[in-house]
Amino acid sequence: MIARYTLPEMAELFSDQHRYATWVRVEILATEAQVRLGHVPEDAVRDMRRAPVPLAQRIAEIEKDRDHEVLSFLAAYCENIPEASARWVHLGMTSYDLVDTALGHTLARATDLLSAAARRLRRTLVTRALEHFDTLMVGRTHGIHAEPTTFGHKLAGYAFAIDRSLTRLAAAREAVAVGTVSGSVGTYALIDPFVEQYVCQSLGLGIEPAPSQVVARDRHAQLVQAVAALGACVEQIALEMRLLQRTEVAEVEEQRAPAYQGSSAMPHKRNPTTSERLCGLARLLRGYATTALEDVALWHERDLAHQSVERVILPDSLAVAHFQATKAEELLAHLTVRPEAMRAALERTHGLIYSSAVLVDLLGDGTEREHAYRRAQAAANRTAATGTPFRDTLATEGVELREEPRPERFLVHHDVIRRRLEMLDELED
């Protein structure tokens, strides 16, 4: 995990010490279940609860010789448990009964953190979309002026994209919030299925229905893909904010600290660095999604090829996405919007953005479609070449306008989008 792109709450969740604390919790729960079954004395659980979580440094010290993290953890943990009770620790379990069950619990909590950040982002998008729902601006397709729209409409589209991402995250959370305590090849040969039921229920986890030795890795791939999809949605927002901050456009601007310096050589520079950073992080998330798919296929009941990969991509993908969503919310919450620049851009092409309305009017007057299109296009080409107002070049083509072109004509049904946005707004109440 890169500290620069990891917020404290996510860093703590994926720390070595937190992982070992979760392992201790799983071991205690499993032993509690064994006590209920009458297989282990009550004293064992009491002694296990009294023992501290072993320090990561101590486990690493033992692992230098054993080259096995779980066995090193168990050795360190049992150093502070009386021998008579330590013999019952990990009874009937295999390493990944511990590792995967704890991982399912951690991934569920990490997904909750990410979802909370995404909900805050959705909330801000809805708020600012409603604030600027009537703020006129030009819509662009292929980077070229198309027809009038509003800044609020643009933000509304992003709000719904984040909402869909939240749905995907919820499904992915359900997929990864599972555990297994089923023994070496998942047959429950040396452990009663009640132990698994007790442990997983206590941790709020589902159960892998047909375990091998590990939880199926398509679950983790689903999560990382959902995370990458959220990242791509954030990237779409950030990319648009970058484009709208270009000098030639200057319709929005990121908030910057008073001491901000955009260039070591050019004191005038005010760069869209936050938006650029958000776009870059999305590339990482897509890479993690591909890598997660590589982890799905394991040899037979399990191999170890996935483990080294997961140590990187699972904490990193969730941390990066959490950072990205959090910073995107801050970007939008403090974004300066310039309605006057947006309004000015509407007339930059001297009325060409109203060509579709002219075409519709000609068709309504009975002009054959190809002829109507060519007349409007000829006038548009003349305006583009000379800068003559579109209404004047239309007149040279013998086209009389029914009414003065204006942006509002294109927004007569705009309230249908507002109503849908207001329904999304109600989800936050």
TrEMBL record:
GO BP terms, alphabetized: 'de novo' AMP biosynthetic process; 'de novo' IMP biosynthetic process
Q: What are the GO MF terms of this UniProt record?
A: (S)-2-(5-amino-1-(5-phospho-D-ribosyl)imidazole-4-carboxamido) succinate lyase (fumarate-forming) activity; N6-(1,2-dicarboxyethyl)AMP AMP-lyase (fumarate-forming) activity
GO cellular component terms, A-Z: cytosol
Q: Which UniProt keywords apply?
A: Lyase, Purine biosynthesis
Q: Which family does it belong to?
A: Belongs to the lyase 1 family. Adenylosuccinate lyase subfamily.
This protein's record includes keyword Transit peptide: no
> Can you give the residue ranges of the Adenylosuccinate lyase C-terminal domain?
350-422
Name of this chain's protein: Adenylosuccinate lyase
What is catalyzed by this enzyme?
N(6)-(1,2-dicarboxyethyl)-AMP = fumarate + AMP; (2S)-2-[5-amino-1-(5-phospho-beta-D-ribosyl)imidazole-4-carboxamido]succinate = 5-amino-1-(5-phospho-beta-D-ribosyl)imidazole-4-carboxamide + fumarate
